[in-house]
Amino acid sequence: MRTLALLLTAVLGCGPRVASPRELIPASLFVRAPLPAAAEALADGSRQRPFHTIADALRAAPSGALILLDEGVYRERLLITRAVVLLGRGPGRTRIVGGPGQGAQAPLVEVRAADHVELRGLALERGRIGLLLHAGAGVRLHDVGLRQFSEAAIVGQGAQLVLRGTEVLDIGPSREARGIELTGGTLDALSVTMRGAGRRAFILRGTRALLADVDVAGSMVSAVQAVDGADVRVVRGVFEHMGGAALYAGGARLSIEGATIAGNEYGVIGFRGAEVEVLDSELLDHLVAAVALVGSRGTVQRCHIRHGGSEGGIAITNGSAPISLVDNRIQEPGPMGLHITESSVRARGNTITGARLDWQQDLGDAIFAINSDVEIDQNMLRGNAGNGILTLSSKLRLTGNGLLDNGRAGLLLLNRSTAVARGNLFARNAAAGVQIAETSHASLARNRFGTNPQFDIDVVCGAGGGGAVSIEGGNTFAGPFAREHVCP
């Protein structure tokens, strides 16, 4: 009994609740994969006469039993209805395998009405669904492999699922294929690896989830899809090579901290009233945008964004509340660093460099805003091929920014935009420090203008209507500038 107690302490001691071996494991049963012509009549689950199927052990096991599985291939489907621990010899040595003629449409393992079920050191392989969890089920997987399921590795509703050191591989190829799909309930996942885990690796509907150190690559659409009131926190982890958004929230809350997100169509998308927070993360090499917020609210802070894509580093449309962009480093983002449309945005302490012209030789702006209200405070917008800031029909407040070495203007106001600029530095911008046109207006105070090659301030007259500028006190100039005047 002392040996058994030590074994059970080692197996179960890391769980969320400490309990005595006698409380959790009143019995231990042994299972050994059958050999050809194996005699099963005398099997009783002892070490000397082990069961030859897991199903026989489950039928004999009292609640809380430990079922020790020897190495081998077990070709059976399991229904678990009481608390048990299935302990294998490792996912490469103990394998539960589905196949034709064994109820191929049924799940390989199904858990009903059992809230302390644990699978350790084994693999589930082949079939339609690997693990099906019903409402109220509580299941823990530790060092488990789930491989080659046509529809899903795990499906659950109203269940509590804990994953530790789990691997999910080769799910699909149908359009409905997904890695793990949960509706309601909770998920706690640590050190999970997923490769080719269906179109979406995680689908979480109304689920409260923590994903820590998760490594996902190669899903056709997304790594994480949080929808319908889900609350998902992602801590660290790597998310690469997805055909859509690596991390997606629709009508849900998604928090991302310290993740690496690379080589996807989008890095992060918030949609349909989502609340999205991206902190201390690295977002690299995306085709469309590193972060896109559509009809959503959120924060992007202390992130490194490089090679954002055709819509830029961060794209914001119809923001439902002021969106905060703080202390981010955005390099070579594509044709725009920040692309803001019909939104309220507060940008503070960001650095945006290296925006490029698009194929029409247009854009290339660090910040491009349309019909928006934007507060820009203590940012560095430098070395972009277009303008530091270009606005159409927008309202801007600029304080303490550096707009330097841009290929066009430091600030360009078009189509009835207005700007109040205080304490900024406009230097070495090719077209002008500040350029105002199309009935736009700028109010300038305490700014420094340093050697902009053409004009420090350029008020443009033309077919679109003239601009206007109010030059207040405290501005300093190193070159020529056009003073306020009324265009004909």
Keywords:
488 residues; mainly beta; 50-stranded parallel β-sheet; 5% helix; rod-shaped
Describe the overall structure.
With 488 residues, this protein is mostly beta strands. The chain has a domain at 393-488. The protein contains three helices and 50 strands. It has a 50-stranded parallel β-sheet that branches. The longest helix is centred in the N-terminal third of the chain and has 11 residues, at 2-12. The termini are far apart. 49% of the residues are buried.
Topology:
Blueprint: H1 2-12, H2 21-24, E1 28-31, H3 54-60, E2 65-69, E3 72-74, E4 78-80, E5 84-87, E6 94-97, E7 109-111, E8 117-133, E9 138-157, E10 160-164, E11 167-171, E12 178-183, E13 186-190, E14 193-197, E15 200-205, E16 208-212, E17 215-217, E18 222-227, E19 231-235, E20 238-240, E21 245-250, E22 253-257, E23 260-262, E24 266-271, E25 275-279, E26 282-284, E27 289-294, E28 297-301, E29 304-306, E30 312-317, E31 323-326, E32 329-331, E33 336-341, E34 344-348, E35 351-353, E36 365-370, E37 373-377, E38 380-382, E39 389-392, E40 395-399, E41 402-404, E42 409-414, E43 418-422, E44 425-427, E45 432-436, E46 441-445, E47 448-450, E48 455-459, E49 468-471, E50 476-477
Parallel strand pairs: 1-2, 2-5, 3-6, 4-7, 5-8, 6-8, 7-8, 8-9, 9-10, 9-11, 9-12, 10-13, 11-14, 12-15, 13-16, 14-17, 15-18, 16-19, 17-20, 18-21, 19-22, 20-23, 21-24, 22-25, 23-26, 24-27, 25-28, 26-29, 27-30, 28-31, 29-32, 30-33, 31-34, 32-35, 33-36, 34-37, 35-38, 36-39, 37-40, 38-41, ...
